[in-house]
Specification:
- The chain has a domain of about 140 residues: Orthogonal Bundle (Endonuclease III, domain 1), CATH 1.10.340.
- It is built from 11 helices and 2 strands, in the order ββααααααααααα.
- The protein is mainly α and about 210 residues long.
- Helix 2 runs antiparallel to helix 7 and helix 9 crosses helix 10.
- About 50% of the residues lie in helices and about 5% in strands.
- A two-stranded antiparallel sheet has the order 1-2.
- Strand 1 and strand 2 form a beta hairpin.
- It is globular, with a radius of gyration of 17 Å.
């Protein structure tokens, strides 16, 4: 059971859709805070495209490893500020002195391995996309799985899939770090490669009614 770490804060019995105080049914994790509600309604599961947005999400998912996603959401604007909007070239050009400065910035997650991995990953992505814009987008989306059955609750949602494992392997082979299979499944969920909104959630109903 994995939703960017969100469901780690909810008991299993609360992982189906529930109606919030605004009368709207959501995946249960999407009702646990205002930040999660906005993220659930406006971002999670919408198709994400573009090298920079995908690089940003890979980076933030990497920082989330071992933590709850809410800790990332509450620091996201600070992450964007210190990593120059996750501009790939600018992040790739960060120096060891810049990494030291980031380690001193209490507004973000001060983990040297993750900071250095973000800079290293930017250099890999810079080479991947140099002269070939969209290459990261194309690579990630090439692992989008076939449409699967709508989960009834988050108890039915896997933490790892064959596709997330394959995506992880491909990114690692390219030289990226902090891109394990569980982290990549979270990326697939948040970036809309899979749709894990549970039955009864308004987002699920909106998609299913269009089908």
């Amino acid at each position: 059971m994995h939703c960017d770490g969100a469901t780690e804060e909810l008991p299993v019995s609360d992982t189906s859709a529930i109606v919030g105080d605004d009368g709207i049914a959501r995946c249960a994790w999407g009702t646990s805070s205002d930040e999660y509600r906005r993220y659930h309604d406006d971002e999670w599961g919408y198709p994400l495209h573009g090298d920079r947005p995908i690089f940003e999400k890979i980076s933030l998912e990497g920082f989330q490893a071992g933590l709850s996603w809410i800790s990332i959401l509450r620091r996201r604007e600070a992450f964007r500020e210190v990593f120059h909007g996750f501009d790939i070239v600018r992040v790739a050009n960060l120096t060891p002195a810049d990494a030291d400065a980031l380690m001193a910035d209490a507004r973000i997650i001060r983990n040297r391995a993750k900071i250095e991995a973000t800079i290293s990953n930017a250099r890999v992505v810079r080479e991947l996309t140099s002269g070939n814009p969209g290459a990261l987008d194309e690579l990630v989306w090439s692992f989008a799985p076939p449409v699967h059955a709508r989960p009834r609750s988050f108890a039915d949602v896997p933490a790892v899939t064959p596709e997330s494992t394959a995506l992880s392997a491909a990114l690692r082979a390219a030289g990226l770090r902090f891109v394990g299979p569980t982290t990549m499944y979270a990326l697939m969920q948040s970036g809309g490669l899979v749709d894990d909104h549970v039955s009864g959630c308004w987002r699920a109903d909106a998609v299913d009614n269009r089908a």
